[in-house]
Amino acid sequence: MAMNRRDFLKVSTSASGGLLLALNLPGCASVQTGYEPETGEWKPNAWLELTRDNDIIFTLDRVEMGQGTYTGLTTLIAEELDVAPEAIRVEFAPVAPEYRNPLFGLQLTGGSTSVASSWQPLREAGASARLMLVMAAARVWRVEPGQCKTEGGYVRHPNGLDSMPYGKLVELADKEVIRGDVPLKPRSQWKYIGRQAGRLDAEAKSTGQAMYGIDVELPDMVYAVMTRSPRYGGLAVSFNRDQVRAMPGVLDAFITERGVAVVADRYWRARKAQEALAVEWDFSEAVGLSNPDVFKHYRQAAGEDPGEDERVDGDPEAVLEKGSTLVEAEYEQPYLAHATMEPMNATAWYRDGGMEVWAPTQAPDLGRIAAARHTDLSPDDVTIHTTFLGGGFGRRLTQDYIEEAALVAYRVKVPVKLIWSREEDTRHGFFRPAMLHRMAASLEDGQLTGWDHQIVGPQILDWYVRNAAPAQYPWAPKLLYGTLGRVGLMVEGIATPKDISAIEGAIGYPYAVPNVRVRHTHTDPGVPITWWRSVGYSHNGFAVETFMDELANQANEDPVSFRLKLLESEPLHRRVLERAAELAGWNQPVPEGRARGVALFKSFGTYVAQVVEASIEQGGIRVHKVTCSVDCGQVVNPRIVEDQMTGGIVFGLTAALNGEITLDGGEVQQSNFHDYRLLHMHQVPEIVVDIVDSEEPPTGVGEPGVPPVIPALGNALFALTGKRQRRLPLKA
């Protein structure tokens, strides 16, 4: 498959004679509108373009990595514009300030925020466009705009007979001025929001037309691979350069700060040359830890540093000291890889004093910073073309693969595609951090009176700020990049948002306990980490909901009833818990040899309760059924919500049953899917997703399915075996 440069440049260009609706919307205040009589265009502002040929183009400012933004956000525009979603052509946004995610101040897709952050501005964009078109038609017909209607890309005359397509009204619409707020469609008139519909990108993906980063082909393109240190922090000192450069098709081989780069005319020739490399490494500053060392380091840190208080209610220390029953537990979670189907890759082309990069990235503005670092370019000299992503899960928020492609392209001066192998993707990625949790609670006559949760481990911002801080100030010279990163960490929680990656889900503890303390002991063993699907909620969910089950058992109460008793002032938590329990037949007999476990967790604004039914067969854990109830506010597309809950459950079960990155002397031991196993199709259980009907604004769905399924499975295994497991992955 190939796409030429002209096709890619269409992402950032608009059709001549088109109307680009520049609206004064959140995040776009700095962009000014302006009509050009020569072309009959409004200069682009944000999301929507209508042309005289009746084309409707939506610029998608959140990437599509399987989570459904391509369909969901287009539906918001379509609803208010009163056209079918499939009538709209979608293009990926270039890097521009107006496309920044208002929740982060960066142009990134993450945190299950796409629909939530776009819900109001995209609907306003569509509604404003439709109103201007109606006003233009009414002026032609000399009728009141309120008498006209729209349908399927046409404005209808009050007589019910005459109509005009949007395209014929484009030039006239520019002259219309909207005064006051733009009315949005009431829920009762929605045609597309809330309806079960297929994905708009399904055909392109099914037929191979969708362009992923790894598919990019450019004229005279060469291929690069990077051999990285087997231990994090190691540096290449020398290698057999002459031997490697003499191999067939090899164009160059050289040392970088990341290792040894090999460039060849074909990908396979680059790989064959890589196999012949003999590299001398300097490990003097490299990580030398093994997994037991990591947790030894955590326990030592926990003993020496009680941690920063993140939440304190009442007097938990006093209550825990005098409680009649003290329950204590410690939970461990290992490092986890992302295992995206498409390994890391990027294509870069340095020429004419600038660089173009084609990449499957979750954060294109950070990609510009990464590309500029090792060149003579400023971020404004770098153009990022975002492609479809073959999975992200947070891994593609970190831009190391773009940095590598850019530094190679800067040297070779021709288009170069750099591809990570599956083994490299597993061994040299950025992982979900390993974490340690120390829990203590007091019970008085079966009542939970005190709760203490000490979280031990690193913060992701420490690793992420390197590119994130410069991306917020793209005008800053590169010599200040390091300073910006350091300052960003210094003012974290003061002038910048607090990094809650280690504590999220723990500080929002919903259960009614009068005395609560949550604290974080910040310590970092030096293993590179980044965001991982559901981030801190994933490890805090396991600790909190497993411990709640332990407390229910100690109080000799049913796990569902025990939780409900503590949720009297939390009706939304109660609702999903009760619905999941009822649908799963919680109070009905379980088939012989099986047991059920339950867990409840709120993440990214979404309430999720899950019941897992499991058994042990032939020495292994088998999950038979997962029942999931979810309240995510107003649903845009129920099928996508169901897909995302299902995907999150499968993702979580993979981590619960198989997920573990192990270090030995600083080297990652896993390399591919044979030893970093994913859930196989025959292992996927029956999954029932129940969606609560809600009129509240939408919340996230891409990640909230993950946190509850891991403890729910562990709780089911305890009900089955009587043995409590406090370390992941779970064992039969």
UniProtKB/TrEMBL annotation:
List GO molecular-function terms, semicolon-separated. isoquinoline 1-oxidoreductase activity
Q: Does the keyword Oxidoreductase apply?
A: yes
Q: Does the keyword ATP-binding apply?
A: no
The alphabetized UniProt keywords are: Oxidoreductase
SMART domains to which the protein is assigned, alphabetical: Ald_Xan_dh_C
Enzyme nomenclature, EC number = 1.3.99.16
Every Aldehyde oxidase/xanthine dehydrogenase a/b hammerhead domain range: 207-285
Q: Which Gene3D superfamilies match?
A: Aldehyde oxidase/xanthine dehydrogenase, a/b hammerhead, Aldehyde oxidase/xanthine dehydrogenase, molybdopterin binding domain
Report the protein name in the record. Answer: Isoquinoline 1-oxidoreductase
